[in-house]
Amino acid sequence: MYRFPWVLLLVAAVNMAVAAEPLRPGFYSETCPPAEFIVRDVMKKAMIREPRSLASVMRLQFHDCFVNGCDGSLLLDDTADMVGEKQALSNINSLRSFEVVDEIKEALEDACPSTVSCADILVLAARDAVALSGGPDWEVRLGRTDSLTASQQDSDNIMPSPRADATSLINLFAQFNLSVKDLVALSGSHSIGKARCFSIMFRLYNQSGSGKPDPAIEPEFREKLNQLCPLGVDENVTGPLDATPRVFDNQFFKDLVGGRGFLNSDQTLFTSRRTRPYVRVFSKDQDEFFKAFVEGMLKMGELQVEQPGEIRINCRVVNGRPVDVLMSY
After folding, report:
1. What is the Cα–Cα distance from 323 to 313, expressed in whole angstroms?
2. The overall pTM is greater than 0.85
3. Is the keyword NADP in the record (predicted)?
4. What is the set of active-site residues?
């Protein structure tokens, strides 16, 4: 469907190792000119089919990049000798819409075989999810390669819990040279989408082991959450992360100021004195939030770890060729 005549010249390179170049805009302008159009086209179709998929796909970049860099490791399925990141505590029964990435990859392989990495697909799809939801659009830097392995343990050691407080989040982001402002802005990814009751039961009924609800929750909002997530509920029931869960805007920060944050790790951004000033600014100035969000996404997209890499043909599995022929970063 997306095939172009010049792409036939690339077929011979399917099993060649890929040496990474510095990330840059327009990386595929010669090797796969329609790449960015293809990604956005598939994302538009996914949005029509299921609007929630945009938020789900957008979050995949964060969960990928914080674990050994932006390398597509999150997308690998488990094998007989590898338990990957999909089984990690912060991901299992939570991350979704991997099939959208599969659809994007299939379309790109049809147009430009073995050219566009799965890691770059995640970065492009996250950008498009934001833009298609009414948020900012921006130029992304591309040229990543895909990892040859994944590790549940590595993800468990890094990814934060919904119970995380602002201090632990600040310290985590600092490990990646991301500032307090970056933390608050990137938390604005929760402007769209939903989360499970599982993530907030402790807030509603046993905050900090007190046997009581989190006092930071606005009372009327807490009543709504109690109705959504009563004790004994199926904890996979979901609720919106802000009052406009299909629109990427600054309502998320307005809700935090009003004590209506769904997750503890979100509401703590307003209760903490170090993060509160940014929440206030973003709640009043959507343009400032958009600007800071784009800056944070670009910085997060630069996270890299030196390791062997390739361009996977299927994002779920490593290509079937010997590791020792691969070139590292």
Report:
1. 15
2. yes
3. no
4. 63
244 known member of a binding site: yes
215 in a labelled binding site: no
Q: What secondary structure letter does DSSP report for 78?
A: P
Per-residue pLDDT of the chain (329 residues; tens, 9 = 90+): 443 333 333 332 333 334 446 899 999 999 999 999 999 999 999 999 999 999 999 999 999 999 999 999 999 999 999 999 999 998 988 898 999 999 999 999 999 999 999 999 999 999 999 999 999 999 999 999 999 999 999 999 999 888 889 999 999 999 999 999 999 999 999 999 999 999 999 999 999 899 999 999 999 999 999 999 999 999 999 999 999 999 999 999 999 999 999 999 999 999 999 999 999 999 999 999 999 999 999 999 999 998 899 999 999 999 984 433 333 33
Q: Are 307 and 147 in contact (CB under 8 A)?
A: yes
List, by residue range, all CATH 1.10.420.10 domains of the chain: 166-299
Residue 31, judged by CB atoms within 10 A of its CB (0-12, 13-18, 19+), counts as: middle
166-299 CATH pick, 1.20.1250.20, 1.10.420.10, 3.30.360.10, 1.20.59.10:
1.10.420.10
**Is residue 145 part of an annotated ligand binding site?**
no
We find that the CATH architecture of domain 34-158+303-316 is: Orthogonal Bundle (1.10)
